[in-house]
Design a protein that fits this description.
Elements lengths: L7 H5 L7 H13 L4 E4 L9 H4 L4 H11 L4 E4 L9 H9 L3 E6 L7 H7 L5 H14 L4 E8 L6 H14 L3 E6 L17 H22 L1
Parallel strand pairs: 1-2, 2-3, 3-4, 4-5
Helix pairs in contact: 2-4, 8-9
Amino acid sequence: NRCTYCSIPNIRGKFRSRPMDELINEAKELAEMGIKELIVIGQDTTAYGIDLYGKYELATLLRRLAKETEIKWLRILYCYPDKITDELLNEFKTNEKLLKYIDIPIQHISDRVLKRMNRRGDRESLTALINKLRARIPDITIRTTFIVGFPGETYEEFLDTVSLVKEVKYGSMFTFIYSKRKGTKAAGFPDEITKEEKTKWFMELLEVQEEIVKANK
């Protein structure tokens, strides 16, 4: 997806799906070793299969892992919101091995900041997805990730993120202070925010999430 802050594509190259049979066989070997939980993850897990099969095949992979292996629990991480299909949602409802837990990294919610990050989506589509997830799978835990202090971000745009966190009430949240990564486009962006300011915003967002976690206990 070539997010402007991310160096992973520079390190690992273009997105490549591993053949499904290969993954099934590896899962069987892990199960024979006594592994109980299998975490399925990629640079963009929800894009799995598009390069090999011409369509998103994550739901099919999860279905086969459940039926063809002795793995007890399946957990998926790093799901792009625009690729969470109805087929995948149905898998959460019907696949008894698939944990009711989904990781949807957002990074930010301001349209302007998202464009500078080269990420798709907006607040309206995201909240619609969250509502859809909770309507279909009421007991699902939603995890997310945010970046604080992206170059050029204003405090008002940071507060957009705070308001989203208060609205959605994520079950789990990881927050990172933006730092330059050599070779990324964002490393050359102007209007870098001071470390002191980024840290202040970071702590403010953590306090909001801590209150949400306390209230959910």
